[in-house]
């Protein structure tokens, strides 16, 4: 009786090793069915990620305004700038996937302004305006304000 169990265990173990060997590169496996996303979908995902980083930066800026100690203000402003930098990276990715996404250009302009990169901010705003002919009034005012800051 114990010999039958020994043979059964040996067969099970050898089957397990051959399955592991195949999965580890010993044989071919089917590639997983991965859904490919379109450039438009990737642009939207990147843009939305940028908005989330921008929102985090705003929360840090609120803490800057509420802080009474210079050390805390510096810490929160550094965190805000880090989030604005992440947002800029995501907006640039969105623009790479979908160059005509004027919202990404405008949002990039905003975060670059917050990072005090005024020339780059103006360029991003100008590109946004070139892509969208109906210029909202607040954006016009922002451009004039940034132009003054840059000079």
CATH architecture: Alpha Horseshoe
Whole-number mean pLDDT: 80
What is the number of helical segments per DSSP (H or I, 4+ residues)?
A: 6
**Largest β-sheet summary:** none
- Tally of separate domains: 1
Order of helices and strands: HHHHHH
Q: What are the main properties of this structure?
A:
6 helices; flat; Serine Threonine Protein Phosphatase 5, Tetratricopeptide repeat; 151 residues; mainly alpha; 81% helix
Q: What does this 3D model show about the protein?
A:
- Helices cover 81% and strands 0% of the residues.
- The relative contact order is 0.09.
- It has 151 residues and is an all-alpha fold.
- The protein has a single domain (37-150), classed as Tetratricopeptide repeat domain (Serine Threonine Protein Phosphatase 5, Tetratricopeptide repeat).
- It has helices at residues 2-26, 39-66, 70-97, 102-114, 118-131, 137-150.
- Residues 5-26 have low confidence and may be disordered.
């Amino acid at each position: 009786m114990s010999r039958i169990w020994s043979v059964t265990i040996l067969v099970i173990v050898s089957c397990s090793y051959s399955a592991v060997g195949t999965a580890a590169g010993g044989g071919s496996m089917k590639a997983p069915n991965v859904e490919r996303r379109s450039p438009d979908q990737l642009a939207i995902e990147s843009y939305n990620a940028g908005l989330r980083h921008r929102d985090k930066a705003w929360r840090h800026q609120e803490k800057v305004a509420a802080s009474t100690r210079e050390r805390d203000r510096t810490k929160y402003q550094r965190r805000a700038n880090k989030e604005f930098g992440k947002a800029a990276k995501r907006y640039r990715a969105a623009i790479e996937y979908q160059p005509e996404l004027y919202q990404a250009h405008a949002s990039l302009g905003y975060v670059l302004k917050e990072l005090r990169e005024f020339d780059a901010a103006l360029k991003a705003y100008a590109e946004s305006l070139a892509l969208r002919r109906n210029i909202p009034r607040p954006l016009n005012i922002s451009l004039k304000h940034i132009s003054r800051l840059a000079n």
